[in-house]
Design brief:
The structure holds two protein chains of two kinds.
Chain A: E1 3-6, E2 11-14, E3 19-21, E4 23-26, E5 32-38, E6 45-50, E7 56-59, E8 62-65, E9 75-77, E10 86-93, E11 101-102, E12 106-111
Parallel strand pairs in A: 2-12
Antiparallel strand pairs in A: 1-4, 3-9, 5-6, 5-10, 7-8, 8-9, 10-11, 10-12
Chain B: E1 5-7, E2 10-13, E3 19-24, E4 31-37, E5 43-50, E6 53-56, E7 65-68, E8 75-79, E9 88-95, E10 106-107, E11 111-115
Parallel strand pairs in B: 2-11
Antiparallel strand pairs in B: 1-3, 3-8, 4-5, 4-9, 5-6, 7-8, 9-10, 9-11
């Protein structure tokens, strides 16, 4: 079945540092890929998505590129802020399916 | 517009008791999805409901688990005779139309169930 593996945390960074969270997947078809973010006390929010190979999703300074050859969707941000402290989840769904499969989440803490 | 509400946020039960988890979708949303996150694992789909109908329960354990979404009131995930292995975070999501890559599902903050 489909599965998502993402970098274990927790990750602690200083403000303005670069962030990369690795995510790889296994899927039978051609999935869509997502990054969700969960801020403290809140629900998961869609951060960005990509629907086909070589697509780049971007939002709030975060980027991720759908790499079919390496089955990866790594999340990157060049300069993090304290407000980026959250849990980040990589996820996939088969073509236009409502069922999402998530990674275990990576906790990121940014220090001032 | 309030987001998806889940309550309680934390629930402690002893083995053999019943757990009831509630989910109030966003206003105007008639599609509800439940997910479970076991310790050290990712969220896994459990069940998809529309008002008064279970559409897809392919991810829900056959025994002891049930879900409903009545015409009025919140969606309920019910776990009977809980066991330690039921300890997990349970997330609810909702959408105004059937969710897919172009139709986002909106998540609640989750209910963390601990079985003693």
């Amino acid at each position: 079945g489909d599965s998502v593996t993402q970098m274990e945390g927790p990750v602690t960074l200083s403000e303005e540092a670069c962030l990369t969270i690795n995510c790889t997947y296994t899927a039978t078809g051609y999935p869509s890929l997502f990054w969700y973010v969960q801020y403290p006390g809140e629900g998961l929010q869609l951060l960005l998505k990509a629907t086909k190979a070589d697509d780049k999703g971007s939002n709030k300074g975060f980027e991720a590129t759908y790499r079919k050859e390496t089955t990866s969707f790594h999340l990157e941000k060049g300069s993090v802020q304290v407000s980026d402290s959250a849990v980040y989840f990589c996820a996939l769904s088969e073509t236009n399916d409502y069922k999402l499969s998530f990674g275990a989440g990576t906790t990121v803490t940014v220090r001032a | 517009n309030a987001g998806v509400m889940q309550n309680p946020r934390h629930l402690v039960r002893r083995r053999g008791q019943e757990a009831r988890l509630r989910c109030s979708p966003m206003k105007g949303h008639s599609h509800v999805y439940w997910y479970r996150q076991l310790p050290e694992e990712g969220l896994k789909f459990m069940v998809y409901l529309q008002k008064e109908n279970i559409i897809d329960e392919s991810g829900m354990p056959k025994e002891r688990f049930s879900a409903e979404f009545p015409k009025e009131g919140p969606s309920i995930l019910r776990i009977q005779q809980v066991v330690r292995g039921d300890s997990a975070a349970y997330f609810c999501a909702s959408s105004p139309v059937l969710a897919g890559v172009y139709n986002e599902q909106f998540f609640g903050p989750g209910t963390r169930l601990t079985v003693l």
